[in-house]
Amino acid sequence: MPQTAMNASAFSEMKEMMGDTFKEVLRLCIETLPEQLSAIEDAIETRDAESLFNISHKMKSSSGSIGAFGLAEKAEVIELIGRDGSTQVPDQAINDLRDATRQVLSIINEEINKS
């Protein structure tokens, strides 16, 4: 069964563990996640498998670090395609990545706006 975009308990655990640094990490995610998504879309369009692999790998890693395991899972699907030297990403896979990115960004914005 696929993960939801954000694992709430992991997110809370990271928040507690990191303290004030957590909001800095979240602000960085607000900047980088849309950039990474755009770069993935560009890599698909330009048929740049190496960039597709590298960017989706970074997105997977950064997402996992804040408890966004569902987003990390979606990025990994695309990462594996790029690692195989392909840019033939199914529409469903890129749409799932877009949806998960939006969900995570919404959760992050909500968290930042709490204070």
Helix content: over 70%
Global morphology: elongated
How many H/I helices?
A: 5
Beta strand count: 0
- CATH C-level name: Mainly Alpha
Q: How many domains make up the coordinates?
A: 1
Structural class: mainly alpha
DSSP strand (E) fraction?
A: under 5%
Separation, N- and C-terminal Cα atoms: 34 Å
CATH homologous superfamily classification: HPT domain
Keywords:
single chain; mainly alpha; Four Helix Bundle (Hemerythrin (Met), subunit A); 5 helices
Q: How are the SSEs ordered, and which strands pair?
A:
Elements: H1 8-18, H2 21-46, H3 49-65, H4 69-83, H5 91-112
Helix pairs in contact: 2-3, 2-5, 3-4, 4-5
Structure description:
The model has no long low-confidence stretch (mean pLDDT 92). The protein is 79% helix and 0% strand. The chain has 115 residues and is an all-alpha fold. The longest helix is centred in the N-terminal third of the chain and has 26 residues, at 21-46. It has a single domain (8-112), classed as Up-down Bundle (Four Helix Bundle (Hemerythrin (Met), subunit A)). It is elongated.
Structure summary:
By secondary structure, the protein is an all-alpha fold.
